[in-house]
Specification:
Layout: E1 5-11, H1 15-26, E2 30-37, H2 44-57, E3 65-67, H3 81-84, H4 105-115, E4 120-124, H5 129-137, E5 147-151, H6 167-171, H7 173-181, E6 186-189, H8 191-194, E7 198-200, H9 201-205, E8 208-209, H10 212-227, E9 233-235, H11 237-246, E10 251-256, E11 258-260, E12 271-273, E13 280-286, H12 288-299, E14 301-302
Parallel strand pairs: 1-2, 1-4, 2-3, 4-5, 5-6
Antiparallel strand pairs: 7-9, 8-14, 10-13, 11-12
Helix pairs in contact: 1-10, 1-11, 4-5, 5-7
């Protein structure tokens, strides 16, 4: 049985963000203290709208949403309509009636992390702009987190936006460098880990669920495949980060010291090991059967890979 977890989710929904959020909503052992939004997969206005609409569709408009950064620390975000579609989600959800809270993401995260020190896990599923700004403006706040789980990076594996860079880190490498260079309890779920948990087109289109959140998950996942017939594989990147936040035993880990490339050339946003002792926790081997078992259990999905 999972231990109760209090979550803060920093997100840029995005289909894989949405599935991760639905997993958290479906878990009886999770309290979602709030969502904070950031630009990345889509512009900030759309990511905020998607977060509110997703919570409304799940019957959880009581969960607060705080708006964060519309731009990275340097430059502009590179959005991903080619992957997520122009609206970010493969299903058009009804317009949300709820509004974001009045306080911005940095203040909201500070309030939540310091309210119950050592209790909240921060799961960052988009560019790390909000998290870096929190470190700048309220440097003690992240020390109050129980853990920080970040989906990002391509360590010793090919990137997904350049040959060596992963999308989230590429979108704000300066923020990533700030976060990863501090002596914080950070677990970085990179592409090498994410590529160990994937589903084929045929398998995904055959999935079924009797759970309302499971059906919404399948609407999004199956809709993603149906929008583009050439898509043959979906990697559960953000859902894996969420799963590791809930159940760390899903993976084995090593401690590494990482460097984030900030030179404005072809290496922009690369994450690489320095070879020295480090504080960042990096998954190595993912227990795919355990991950899919968690997904099946939370969302009552039938037909998942039996790995």
């Amino acid at each position: 049985m999972l231990q109760p977890v209090r979550l803060l989710i920093d997100t840029d929904p995005g289909i894989d963000d949405a599935i991760a959020i639905l997993m958290a909503l479906a878990s009886p052992d999770v309290e979602i203290a709030g969502l904070t939004t950031v630009g990345g997969n889509v512009p900030l206005a759309r990511s905020t709208r998607n977060a509110l609409a997703l919570l409304q569709a799940a019957g959880r408009s009581d969960i607060p949403v705080a708006k964060g950064a519309s731009r990275p620390l340097r430059g502009r975000y590179t959005y991903a309509p080619q992957f997520h579609g122009p609206g970010g989600l493969s299903r058009r959800l009804p317009e949300p009636t709820a509004e974001p809270v009045t306080e911005g993401a940095v203040q909201f995260l500070y309030d939540q992390l310091t309210r119950e020190p050592g209790e909240a896990v921060l799961v960052a599923l988009g560019p790390l702009t909000n998290v870096a700004r929190l470190l700048w403006e309220r440097p003690i706040a992240l020390e109050q987190a129980k853990n920080i789980v970040v989906m990002g990076g391509a360590v010793n594996t090919p990137g997904n936006i350049t040959p060596r860079a992963e999308f989230n880190i590429y979108n704000d490498p300066a923020a990533a460098e700030i976060v990863l260079s501090r002596r914080l309890s950070v677990t970085l779920v990179d592409l090498a880990a994410c590529r160990q948990v994937w589903i084929s087109r045929e398998r995904a289109l055959g999935l079924r669920s009797a759970h309302p959140l499971g059906r919404l998950t399948l609407d999004l996942l199956q809709g993603w495949f149906r929008r583009e017939p050439s898509r043959q594989r979906f990697e559960f990147c953000d859902p894996l980060a969420l799963a590791i936040a809930l159940e760390p035993a899903i993976a084995t880990f090593v401690k590494v010291d990482l460097d984030v490339a900030l030179e404005e050339n072809e290496s922009w946003g690369e994450t690489s090991e320095t070879g020295g002792p480090g504080e960042t926790t990096l998954p190595k081997e993912v227990d795919a059967a355990r991950f899919f078992g968690l997904l099946e259990r939370l969302l009552e999905l039938e037909g998942l890979p039996a790995t």
